[in-house]
Amino acid sequence: MNEIDRFFIRQRENWTNLRRLGVRYVFCIERYCKETDPRCFIGELSNARIVGDTLFAQCERCKRKTNAPKDGKSIEQEWKKLRKDGVRNSRCYCGEDNPFTFERDHIAGQKSSDEVIGVCINCHLKRTSRQQTEYPPDNLDPKSPIVVMRNKVRGKIEHNELDNDDLRNLEEFLNNLAAKEHNATRK
User: Is the overall model pTM greater than 0.90, yes or no?
Assistant: First the structure.
């Protein structure tokens, strides 16, 4: 499967999820969250509101942050639990660093490897959706060294793509900031 096919599969999946919600657009209602991917709006949507063809709701990451304890002891205990489960990073690709939003993501898939990385629930939902839509199920032995290596390569590619998406957003933000600074110095 080439990149163009993957792109269109992702787009079709997004549109399917949007139609499932009965809307064309979704936005997280939390002030500093900019989540718009429909895959991140699952579960309880009773506090959501629809205005025209747009759904305004709390994404899964923000739900977890809202309900998470804020005291230092609880946060430290959650980090210890994640470390015990094999998570070594303390920040997701999207920049999230709240341990209560983190989940263990098996880089090569649960059946092939125990190697994990910590990602926030939203990034995990996006990655899992991609795995389910882009890679057809096969009857190969998941413990076969070749299949494990193939799955690791797939996982690394997907994690790099998640990282690159965030870098694109950062690059766009810095570009806009530089333009504002440039315009301010010219006045």
Answer: no
